């Protein structure tokens, strides 16, 4: 296209083209101002640039008029409407051979697996009414594509099925998968009858499908137990009261043996009411392997309402026969009698001392030099009162001072010489012992190195 050439040089008008009277002003000036070629070239440059801009607006057409006539009528109206219908669905005009297989699947001609990707939403017209669903799987064989659909609902959001062959099918713009533009791992389902569910796509081979649901102030783990349409069954709930497993009671195979340790289970976290039921009137214990097991109540015992009782009948003990005995009291031991018709009496070491045939106190000591006790019973100490004069102090006092005793000893340094030992002052808490002779003089007091004293008191 021909364009206009600008005069050479970078001329420009002093005031641009806005001053339309500059030449008249120059002519009327005193003295007159000659016409400036720079002003004229500058004005021409502005005009030529403007003309070239208009010419370039013709684009690829031969002229601006030619370009405008493509889109405008002679009266200035547009030759074509700009109204465009926008839909959330892409009508599959190429789909043919739509045939119902069962309540949740259908077939169509050709390989359509690249279009109907798993989790892609579809809209079908069945019986003149729209039916919505999601692609579960798409497979191609024998010149047809088989679509398995899930989450089938009608326009009101109620569960429905592929009752008859669809007359038309459309799919959503969004696609799933690692190259798709929809959520890959889960999607939110807004049902009418159910609370919103975050659906988890099970990539395993189990065929199970689970989801998370917030409903009624608690968080539920739900399982899809439906077939054509989803049916969400609560398996576990978490609320302000804690964890509720009532929707899916845990069987013995659900938790591995020894899987719950004290490090995982807080103290007092499980009450007896939460433990599995056992056999009535049995106890809970540990077997030889250290594992919990029930303990059967044997004969002679009974367990009722949490109380373990002795129901056995035990005969009284007799010579060479085991049986029931009763512990004798101190009085019974002292009197060598029974106070009633109870079972045979058994004497304890602590009460044996009360028997009249048992010494209440005894001592064996060395009375020479510093007195030292070799062995004793119920004797706390011995006071050295002088040569051959000792006071034996009892730990526990006698009942009275009318006690009897046995006394003996010797003086080793004068072995073979006679002597005698006698008692002096006696009281309930002490007894004086005097040792004489055992030397050349029988009538003189002497310290003995072996003194033995025994006392009985009923």
Shape: elongated
- Helical content band: under 10%
Number of helices: 5
- Major sheet: arrangement of strands: 1-7-4-5-6-3-2
- Structural class of the helices, strands and pairings? mainly beta
Distance between the termini: 153 Å
Indicate the radius of gyration in whole angstroms. Answer: 60 Å
Q: Indicate the mean pLDDT.
A: 77
What fraction of the residues are assigned to beta strands by DSSP?
25-35%
Reported for the largest beta sheet, the result is: 7 strands, antiparallel
Number-wise, the strands total 27
Low-confidence stretches: 184-194
Task: Give an overview in words.
This protein is mainly beta and 458 residues long. Among the domains are: 1-78, no CATH class; 89-172, Thrombin, subunit H (Beta Barrel); 186-244; 361-456. The protein contains 5 helices and 27 strands. It has helices spanning 22-28, 37-56, 64-71, 330-335, 349-352; strands at 89-91, 99-102, 105-109, 121-126, 129-141, 144-154, 168-172, 186-189, 197-200, 210-215, 218-224, 232-239, 242-244, 282-286, 292-296, 301-304, 307-310, 326-327, 345-346, 361-366, 372-377, 379-386, 389-394, 404-410, 419-426, 430-437, 450-456. The strands form 7 sheets. It has a 7-stranded antiparallel beta sheet, with no helix packed on it. Strands 8-9-10-11-12-13 form a 6-stranded antiparallel beta sheet, with no helix packed on it. Strand 12 (232-239) and strand 13 (242-244) form a beta hairpin. The protein is elongated. The protein starts with 21 loop residues before the first helix and ends with a strand. The model is unreliable at 184-194 (pLDDT under 50).
């Amino acid at each position: 296209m021909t364009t206009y050439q600008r005069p050479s040089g970078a001329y420009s008008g002093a005031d641009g083209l806005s001053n339309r009277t500059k030449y008249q002003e120059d002519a009327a000036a005193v003295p007159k101002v000659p016409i400036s070629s720079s002003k004229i070239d500058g004005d021409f440059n502005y005009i030529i640039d403007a003309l070239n801009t208009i010419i370039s607006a013709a684009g690829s057409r031969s002229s601006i008029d030619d370009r405008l006539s493509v889109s405008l009528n002679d009266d200035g109206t547009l030759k074509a409407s700009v109204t465009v219908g926008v839909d959330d669905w892409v009508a599959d005009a190429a789909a043919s051979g739509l045939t119902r297989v069962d309540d949740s699947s259908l077939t169509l001609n050709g390989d359509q697996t690249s279009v109907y990707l798993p989790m892609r939403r579809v809209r079908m017209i069945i019986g003149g009414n729209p039916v919505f669903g999601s692609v579960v799987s798409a497979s191609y064989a024998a010149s047809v594509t088989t679509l398995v659909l899930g989450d089938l609902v009608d326009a009101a959001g109620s569960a429905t099925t592929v009752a008859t062959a669809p007359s038309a099918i459309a799919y959503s713009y969004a696609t799933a998968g690692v190259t798709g533009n929809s959520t890959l791992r889960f999607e939110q389902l807004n049902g009418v009858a159910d609370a919103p569910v975050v659906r988890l796509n099970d990539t395993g081979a189990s065929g199970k499908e689970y989801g998370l649901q917030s409903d009624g102030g608690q968080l539920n783990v739900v399982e899809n137990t439906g077939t054509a349409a989803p049916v969400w069954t609560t398996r576990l709930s978490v609320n302000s009261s804690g964890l509720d497993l009532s929707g899916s009671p845990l069987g013995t195979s659900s938790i591995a043996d020894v899987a719950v340790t004290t490090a995982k289970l807080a103290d007092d976290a499980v009450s007896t009411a939460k433990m599995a039921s056992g056999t009535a009137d049995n106890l809970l214990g540990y077997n030889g392997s250290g594992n919990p097991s029930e303990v059967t109540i044997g004969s002679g015992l009974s367990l009722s309402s949490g109380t373990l009782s002795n129901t056995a009948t035990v005969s009284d003990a007799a010579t060479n026969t085991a049986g029931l005995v009763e512990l004798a009291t101190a009085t019974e031991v002292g009197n060598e009698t029974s106070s009633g018709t109870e079972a045979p009496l058994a004497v304890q070491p602590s009460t044996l001392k009360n028997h009249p045939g048992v010494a209440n106190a005894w001592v064996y000591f060395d009375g020479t030099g510093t007195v030292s006790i070799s062995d004793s019973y119920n004797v706390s100490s011995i006071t050295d009162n002088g040569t051959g004069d000792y006071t034996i102090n009892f730990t526990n006092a006698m009942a009275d001072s009318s006690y009897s005793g046995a006394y003996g000893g010797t003086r080793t340094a004068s072995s073979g010489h006679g002597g005698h030992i006698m008692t002096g002052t006696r009281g309930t808490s002490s007894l004086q012992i005097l040792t004489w002779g055992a030397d050349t003089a029988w009538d003189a007091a002497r310290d003995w190195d072996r003194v033995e004293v025994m006392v009985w008191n009923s």
